[in-house]
Amino acid sequence: MHRRLLDDLKAWKIKKGRLPLILKGARQVGKTWLLNEFGKACFDDVLYINFENAANLEELFDGVIEPQRIIDMLGALHGKKIIPEKTLLIFDEVQEIPRALTSLKYFAENAPEYPICCAGSLLGVALHKGTSFPVGKVDFLTLQPLTFEEFLIANDEEMLCEFIRKSSFAPLAQAFADKLSDYLKLYFIIGGMPAPVQAWLDDRDFTRVEEKQLAILDTYTQDFSKHAPSSLVPKLRYLWNSIPSQLAKENKKFIYGLVKEGARAREYEDALLWLLDSGLIRRVGRITKGALPLKAYEDLKSFKIYHLDIGLLRVMSELSPHIIIESTRVFQEFKGALTEQFVLQELSSFSGIRNIYYWTSDATAEVDFVFSDGRRVIPVEAKASENVQAQSLKVYRAKYDTELAVRTSLANLRYDDGLLNIPLYVLWNFGNYELMALGTQPKSGPLI
After folding, report:
1. Distances in whole angstroms, Cα of residue 124 to Cα of each of 24, 55, 57, 149
2. What would the CATH number be for the domain defined by 5-142?
3. Contact (CB, 8 A) for 10 and 117
4. Whether residue 67 has a cis bond before it, omega within 30° of 0
5. Which of 51, 145, 302, 347 is most buried as measured by Cβ atoms within 10 A of its Cβ?
């Protein structure tokens, strides 16, 4: 599968002052596969070590950490000659041996000629347990589920994507809109987790896709029992299972009472943090003012919780694939939750966006997502149909006189007086549309 992050890995390889790399991301988003593909494409050899299945390696990192000693021992143990700049070292599930994580500091300082990539599905959880971390001595990248563009390319539609990227700033022909809408329905069903996507490519069978999705969800719940403190496990399950009901509300602000009757924030804060650290949920905080810096105006008590992946959310919500395929109202069903989930996933994949928020007025207006591109604040309204009336966005624009506002829906591409309407199925091309709409180059470059 084509993963856009491979280009970032290639850039890391030749980066001046390169540090050991930590690839973050939830379990089963494809971190191990991607790192091995990177190794095959860009290095003469790869040494892959999974620390979850190699507890006997712990003693290699005991005592004084000396990179060359570790390199020599790993090479001897695996029968490989580890050559500087030629051999890629991959430390998978690195959080399982905390001293291996600590060793990255010494590799950065004393042996930068050895390229090391680390992955850890529960790395964030381990760090909150007090695992020593080499602050300032590592680079980071984050792998997420396949974006809709990556899904299209996986379905042999690379030429279609390239055509859209090169097209002028004009409405899409109906033939393209219909084709992309059909693919979008498929993406709502399958999502972006690599295993279900591969199952679809191999068999074109929704039953096989759902088998893979259920297996992933089962793995996640097993992780609760395996890696979380026993006192936290019931709370994790309650929180996890409440996600569909949280998103089924008209107002999707997270409510602890929907987790369990009588639940209080202080009882569930640790469980919520565990799910965030493991990458299984996405948190969107509320801001009280649409101005830079957005973080300064965050209301820490009000937030929304979304899922890691739209396909997994669909399965947890027990929405049949056939209902999505056959219904013309699919994007509006479930209170538009799948559409909001999709928009958030797409926005989260843009490299120029660090945090995503939502905004509410003192009255009833609410803008689904607000982010900064480094130069301006951009509000985004996620509409689930061709009805493009967005009253909340009007209230926001009148209040903050924003330079650019985005409304994404099934309506065609259009730009009018600072309001950019982008069809849901080409939201991945936002960076190019932003440049064409404003006719200027943002300081941070296109958000793609």
Report:
1. 9, 20, 22, 28
2. 3.40.50.300
3. no
4. no
5. 145
Q: Using one digit for the tens of pLDDT, what is the confidence trace for 68-98?
A: 999 999 999 999 999 999 999 999 999 889 8
pLDDT for position 330: 62
Q: What is the DSSP string of 238-271?
A: HHHHHHHHHHTSSS----GGGTSTT--HHHHHHH
> Residue 221 burial (CB < 10 Å; 0-12/13-18/19+)?
middle
Give buried/exposed letters for 141-169 (b at 16+ CB in 10 A, else e): bbbbbbbbbbbbbbeebeebbeebeebee
CA distances from 8 to 17, 139, 142, 192, 435 (A): 15, 11, 10, 19, 22
Contact status, residue 278 vs residue 239, Cβ threshold 8 Å: no
Ordered DSSP codes for 95-123: GGSHHHHHHHHHHHHH-TTS-EEEE-TTH
Sign (positive/negative) of CA torsion 194, 196, 197, 203? Answer: positive
Written as one letter, the residue type at 24 is: K
Residue 362: the pLDDT is: 79
Q: What is the mean pLDDT of residues 194-206?
A: 98
Sorted by where each begins, the domain ranges of the chain are 5-142, 148-438
pLDDT of 64 > 50? The answer is yes
Average pLDDT over residues 145-167: 97
Handedness of CA 105, 109, 110, 112 (dihedral sign): positive
User: Which residue reads 């003469």 in tokens?
Assistant: 44
pTM (whole model) above 0.85:
yes
DSSP H or E run through 421: strand 419-423
What is the C-alpha separation between 275 and 240, in angstroms, rounded?
8
- Report how far apart, in Å, the C-alpha atoms of 68 and of each of 16, 88, 114, 244, 345 are: 22, 15, 10, 50, 41
Alpha-carbon span 87 to 102, nearest angstrom: 21
* Whole-number Å distance between alpha carbons of 188 and 388: 21
The per-residue DSSP string of 133-163 comes to: --TTS-EEEE--SPPHHHHHHHTT-HHHHHH
Residue 44: exposed, middle, or buried by beta-carbon count in 10 A (0-12, 13-18, 19+)? exposed
